[in-house]
């Protein structure tokens, strides 16, 4: 046996003397050196297999823990929106902010496809003083998704870098916008059943959303769908529209909703 090879030296170091050497020795069949090396190779393969199994278990667990954290932050953001909304209502004679001018006062009816990622656009809408810090305007999952999907959105201007500014929109049926059907919270019979703000995505969905995330309003219609709530949380498989959206209702409570329920919770009743 040639003890001068590096492999044998390493084997002697890790075998901790004669006792271990006799332990390993029990596995020896035929030529000493060849079998020691073969055993090391099998060990290596077993270790690689164990690592592969551990990774296959741990990576999805870590991924879902990260998604759960983003889901929780998103809900906390909408809770802040609900609080800001209730303070606004208390200080403005129970009137909702204008659904088209709550975040950017230049809103009006114009379709502004790239505003959501335009850092030069200054938020100065009527709800702005109640919302303050920019962090609450962004679902962390949307921030991740929009970085890759962003440039594919409708009527994108290549000269405006993708720097996401907001991901939540207000229910168009509330407030003074041209679409609004109720102006005061006192006109909403069931404040726990009507959505105030929800997340909106930046990509079109045929038959569901033709004008996504552009002017800060969610105009969810039964027959002519311009907008819809963004259901990219807790998706089934890789379909980003198959999960749930986080929503804050007029009474300030936050819950999740499915795309198919969006008209029911959007239209004031
Ligand atoms: Zn979210
Ligand atoms: Zn754009």
How many helix segments? Answer: 6
Regarding quaternary structure, what we see is: single chain
Q: What does the main sheet amount to?
A: 5 strands, mixed
Task: Estimate the global geometry from the Cα principal axes.
Answer: elongated
Low-confidence segments, ≥5 residues, pLDDT <50?
13-27
Number-wise, the strands total 5
Can you tell me the number of structural domains? 2
3D architecture notes:
This protein starts with 5 loop residues before the first helix and ends with a helix. 36% of the residues lie in helices and 7% in strands. A hairpin with a 4-residue loop joins strand 4 and strand 5. The protein has 269 residues and is of the alpha+beta class. The chain is built from six helices and five strands. The protein folds into two domains: 36 residues, no CATH class; 190 residues, no CATH class. A five-stranded mixed β-sheet has the order 3-1-2-4-5. Bound molecules: zinc ion (ZN) (2 copies). One zinc ion binds next to loops.
In a few lines, what is going on in this structure?
The chain has 269 residues and is of the alpha+beta class. It contains six helices and five strands.
Question: Tags for this entry?
Answer:
269 residues, alpha+beta, 2 domains, five-stranded mixed β-sheet, 36% helix, elongated, binds zinc ion
